[in-house]
Specification:
This protein is an alpha+beta fold. The chain contains 7 helices and 5 strands.
Length: about 200
């Protein structure tokens, strides 16, 4: 639910809004203009593979999520959207839900986009806004599969790969999964040594 201002009687003010931009109508240096406003924001990857219900492709576009520090009126949010060439403006009831929508994380029937391509502006943190407890276990499963598929036994190699290529893995490793992955890699090494000894 949108966070509203008690002073305003809870009407028409919230912290989070979103707009859509089209490459052909976005003004030059629109991202720099957004940065200059000092408002935290997330910019989706270019949605260039979306399909309309009639089967025709949608026009390529970006979704931009504004995350204000204080509640703002729709008029204030529209002013910011217009400055960067945004088309329309909507109040966002769930910042986590909308941030996940930037890559269609919860819409498997839609084109999927990479979290690594989400642009964070003025300190907005995509992973912090979107991570669910279940995502940690998914990331651990992906890391296990990657280590097996790529014959990786070194925790250092996994950590450096995650840092460079998979920010969600890197965060999980730094926050809580180091012991699990170290034990897994250690057991893989032990199993390999046993196989060599028994040959």
């Amino acid at each position: 639910m949108a966070e509203t201002s008690k002073k305003q009687g809870g009407r028409g003010r919230t912290r989070n809004y979103a707009t859509v931009l089209y490459p052909e109508s976005a003004p030059p240096k629109w991202r720099e203009k957004l940065e200059a406003e000092h408002v935290r924001a997330l910019i989706s990857p270019l949605h260039d593979r979306d399909i309309n219900p009639d089967g025709k492709p949608k026009k390529p576009h970006w979704h931009v999520l504004f995350v204000f520090d204080n509640v703002k009126s729709m008029e204030q949010a529209k002013t910011l959207a217009k400055k960067i060439g945004g088309v329309g403006c909507e109040a966002v009831n769930s910042v986590r839900g909308y941030a996940r929508y930037l890559i269609h994380a919860d819409n498997p029937e839609k084109a999927q986009y990479s979290a690594n391509e989400v642009v964070s502006v003025n300190g907005a943190d995509f992973l912090d806004l979107t991570t669910l407890p279940s995502d940690k276990y998914k990331a651990i499963g992906e890391m296990l599969d990657w280590c097996v598929a790529n014959d990786v036994l070194s925790y250092g190699e996994l950590l450096m790969y995650a840092r460079a290529n998979q920010q969600d893995w890197f965060r999980v490793l730094c926050d809580s999964a180091t012991m699990v992955m170290k034990e897994f890699l250690k057991s893989q090494q032990w199993e390999r040594e046993q196989t060599i000894r028994n040959q």
